[in-house]
Design brief:
Blueprint: E1 8-12, H1 19-25, E2 28-29, E3 33-35, E4 52-54, E5 58-65, E6 68-75, E7 84-88, E8 101-109, E9 114-122, E10 128-137, E11 144-153, E12 158-167, E13 186-195, E14 198-205, E15 211-221, E16 228-235, E17 238-247, E18 252-263, H2 272-282, H3 286-303, E19 306-309, H4 317-333, H5 363-371, H6 375-386, H7 389-398, E20 421-424, E21 429-432, H8 440-456, H9 459-463, H10 467-481, E22 483-485, E23 490-492, H11 518-537, H12 540-550, H13 554-566, H14 591-598, H15 604-610, H16 628-632, H17 635-644, H18 653-662, H19 670-681, H20 685-697, H21 714-728, E24 731-734, E25 737-740, E26 750-757, E27 760-766, E28 770-775, E29 783-787, E30 790-794, E31 799-803
Parallel strand pairs: 25-29
Antiparallel strand pairs: 1-8, 2-3, 3-4, 5-6, 7-12, 8-9, 9-10, 10-11, 11-18, 12-17, 13-14, 14-15, 15-18, 16-17, 19-26, 20-21, 22-23, 24-25, 26-27, 27-28, 28-31, 29-30
The chain binds beta-D-glucopyranose.
């Protein structure tokens, strides 16, 4: 029996309604550049959407609606380098949408980072033509991408015409809801031929004035050296070549196109057009570039191995494939090219235009995967925040607060990019969008930063690179946001939104936000504690310099301590942590009735609004909010945090809290299933595996019904990998020790994964009985690894076998995360 291929996503047949999802899933990227898996002969027409994006290249456009000017910043769709069409004799360009397709298949090879496309056409005259294309976005040479096309004239002889160029007439129009807003971000400045076989288009973004040069070198190899006639192929905003060649039945014409994309944001260039032309003049041929690229992917996968092997009931090959696909998209979106890009993590990758390429809190879900493999990449994402500290300080000041208030949606310069209105497609109404009240994004940044330092021990990031300032300024902002109420002698944070974006205000209130979101308040306490710990961690001279620079004196520190000890957290009489103050006074929704009526309730907010109601009026959450606390903290840590505030968290309160929200969450964000899988993993493994399945299939199955076409959900994709490593394998970095606390189902066999801890590459094999950790050989100090109380110094080249202290699968009476 052949082993199922878990590395290839195969998409068979032609389905125009599904093309958007396929294009997003088949995006190839290298962290610097991303190109959707659109067919090279296609243009944006409602079915196809060729999109190429460079990380960090944003532009702003303004529109006036109802007399009010609205400005939006978007990641710009760059000139389309794929642009390649072929025609047989005098027929129209081959086009899958125009029918006459006998076979059509797309295959994404995630082991090598190569996209294959095969289509067989029959034309009006009954001639059969087969087209095979291979494509890469080069992992090492960040500016280069390649497309190889072979055209087989199966049963005809005659003329084949190829048009290949660069199309600068593209706009941002990939998301239907934004299409009424302006989308023309580029002005074409120049088109030129830089060599016989090379064209170059230079454009500028209209507001940010980035220059973008996209060049393409097209070479045709004709059978039996038949002459190739090349002519310029020009149209406004587009430059290319038209090549004609004679072909006989059974012969193949090979067309290789190498593209270069360079922008004025890039380092180590003199000027984009010069750089792009130079790169194309020097670039080797397609096969050589492809070989380099696939070798690079092989090295990368070696470093990021996750294998599920030898189980009696191992995970299905489809699950393994989907897990690899998820890892693939994360690894190709955040790469070492991120180190000098200053681009942050766009929530929907370089894969589409949803959320306009903005950066949210999603790195909270991606960083754990990076920190345990590529700490430098995690650091690069954190530096994106460090550089925007002043913008966050300005935002805090403008809101009347001290410290740093990071934006919910961030783009080029760190100002708030959240939209002010959003469309409910069900009712056709535009509604106020107050999601920027999610102040908790700053807390997530502080949490990310701390996790990074825990995993790496990189104190220099704190002291020399601005990490400490970010954490302290976030702490300062939240301490200032908290208001003391003498009535209960507690601090309260009012008028914010938690991660649950459904709840925007109290019923009937015109004041946006809710009070005392438990997640925000508890995380504030955690950050205030870490801020103090951080100051203790620093050498006295550094501490003094820092506190002097921030004007952080004993009075303010005392205030932080008070807030950290007297923060209000709404906890109901039955022990259930309340999502916010007054949450439990809201009525319950009749979930069963709504489910019967509408089936899918992921967009319950839109359903209720279209009915003339409001989701604000019910105990209903879009995604995990309170349960985020169990995702970020162990039960002991949470108990300790609440205990410090004078609240108890008895064991039975945990399953009660989890059950309460499980029954009232619509999972309208892909992040929700991820958090639920995590929270359930300890005690309700089967249910957790169901949620895991949802996470891993979020995009491949487009579980949100249409959102994948607009870009993949990187948080969920990374989350799927993270569930395997941190949740099922129980990997944790705490107190200078790499700990394993696996909850790995025995029937799933062996889980093997490669990690990096404190600079040492490690391979861990996890079963339901033991964890075996092998350290790569080489010079250096040991790292400390542990299972339970058994801590070992693991020297380079050594392997340690740690038996799990308890038998697998104890199922306690209630749920728990203990
Ligand atoms: C979720 C947010 C998330 C954003 C970007 C939204 O639907 O509610 O939590 O940050 O998508 O992924």
């Amino acid at each position: 029996m052949t082993r199922p291929d878990t590395w290839t996503l195969v998409l068979d047949g032609w389905d125009p309604a599904d093309e958007g999802r396929r294009e997003a899933l088949c995006t190839l990227a290298n962290g610097y550049l991303g190109t959707r898996g659109a067919l090279p002969e296609s243009s944006a027409d409602g079915v196809h959407y060729p999109g190429t994006y460079a990380a960090g290249v944003f532009n702003r456009l303004s529109d006036v609606g109802d007399g009010v000017a609205v400005e939006n910043e978007s990641m710009v769709n760059l000139p389309n380098w794929l642009d390649l069409r072929v025609a047989v004799e005098d027929e129209a360009w081959l086009d899958v949408s125009a029918g006459r397709v006998l076979e059509h298949r797309t295959q994404l090879d995630t082991a090598r980072g190569v996209l294959h496309r095969t289509t067989r056409f029959v034309d009006g005259a009954g001639r059969h033509t087969r087209l095979h294309q291979r494509r890469f976005v080069h992992r090492e040479r960040r500016h280069l991408a390649g497309l190889h096309t072979s055209v087989v004239a199966e049963d005809w002889s005659g003329r084949l015409t190829v048009a290949s160029g660069v199309d600068g007439t593209v706009t941002n129009s990939g998301v239907a809801r934004y299409r009424h807003l302006s989308g023309r971000h580029l002005e074409v400045l120049a088109t030129e031929e830089t060599a016989d076989d090379t064209v170059l288009l230079t454009a500028a973004t209209t507001q940010s004035r980035h220059r973008v040069a996209v060049g393409a070198r097209t070479r045709v190899t004709a059978p039996a050296d038949a002459p190739v006639v090349r002519a310029p192929d020009l149209a406004p905003g587009r430059i290319g070549h038209r090549l004609t060649v004679g072909v006989r039945a059974g012969e193949t014409v090979e067309i290789e196109k190498i593209a270069a994309v360079v922008t004025s944001r890039d380092v180590a260039i003199a000027e984009p057009a010069l750089a792009a032309a130079g790169l194309l003049a020097e670039a080797p041929g397609f096969e050589e570039l492809l070989a380099e690229h696939t070798r690079s992917w092989a090295r990368l996968w070696h470093r990021c191995r996750i294998e599920l092997v030898d189980g009696e009931q191992p995970a299905s090959p489809t699950t393994v494939r989907d897990l690899r696909l998820a890892g693939f998209h994360v690894l190709q979106t955040v790469t070492r090219h991120a180190l000098d890009l200053d681009a942050g993590l766009p929530a929907r990758g370089l894969h589409g235009e949803a959320y306009r390429g903005h950066v949210f809190w999603d790195e909270l879900f991606v960083l754990p995967v990076l920190v345990l493999r590529f700490p430098a990449l995690a650091r690069a994402l954190l530096l994106y925040r460090v550089r925007r500290l002043d913008a966050a300080r300005r935002a805090a000041r403008a809101a009347g607060h001290r410290g740093a208030m990071y934006p919910w949606q961030s783009g080029s310069d760190g100002r708030e990019e959240s939209q002010r209105l959003h469309l409910n497609p069900l009712s056709g109404r535009w509604l106020p969008d107050t999601s920027d009240r999610q102040r908790h994004v700053g807390l997530a940044i502080a949490y990310d930063l701390w996790q990074y330092v825990q995993a790496t021990g990189d104190l220099a990031f704190l002291t020399d690179e601005g990490g400490a300032e970010v954490l302290l300024e976030v702490a300062r902002f939240f301490a200032d946001l908290a208001e003391h109420d003498p009535a209960d002698d507690r601090f309260h944070i009012r008028g914010v939104m938690g991660p649950d974006e459904y709840t925007t205000r109290y019923p009937g209130s015109d004041r946006p936000g809710i009070d005392d979101n438990a997640y925000t308040n508890v995380l504030t306490v955690w950050v205030l504690r870490r801020a103090r710990e951080l100051l203790d961690l620093l050498p006295p001279s550094r501490r003094e310099a820092l506190t002097a620079a921030l004007d952080l004196g004993p009075t303010e520190l005392r205030h932080w301590r008070e807030v950290g000890e007297r923060m209000a957290v709404p906890i109901h009489g039955d022990g259930v942590i309340s999502q916010f103050a007054g949450y439990r006074d809201l009525p319950d929704l009749d979930w069963d009735a709504y489910r019967r009526r509408y089936g899918d309730l992921q967009r319950l907010d839109r359903i209720l609004e279209a009915e003339g109601r409001s989701v604000d009026d019910y105990q209903a959450s879009k995604q995990a909010d309170v349960l985020m606390l169990f995702y970020l903290f162990s039960a002991d840590e949470l108990r300790d945090l609440l205990g410090g505030l004078g609240y108890a968290l008895p064991p039975e309160a945990i399953p009660r809290t989890i059950d309460h929200y499980l029954a009232r969450t619509a999972h309208g964000s892909t992040l929700s299933a991820l958090v639920h899988a995590w929270v359930l993993a300890r005690a309700h493994r089967e249910e957790a595996l169901d949620h895991f399945d949802r996470v891993v299939r979020s995009d491949v199955a487009d579980l949100q019904g249409g959102t994948t076409a607009e870009g993949v959900h990187l948080g969920a994709m990374a989350g799927a990998v993270d569930l395997v490593q941190r949740c099922f394998a129980g990997v944790e970095t705490r107190g200078d020790v790499l700990r394993f606390n696996p909850h790995w189902p025995g029937r799933s066999g062996v889980l093997e994964l490669t990690l990096q801890y404190r600079g040492r590459p490690l391979t861990a094999r996890v079963t339901d009985r033991e964890v075996c950790v092998a350290a790569d050989d080489g010079p250096g100090r040991p790292v400390r690894v542990a299972v339970g109380d058994e801590v070992h110094d693991l020297w380079p080249g050594q392997t340690v076998r740690l038996r799990l202290p308890r038998a697998p699968s104890p199922v306690p009476a209630g749920r728990g995360t203990g």
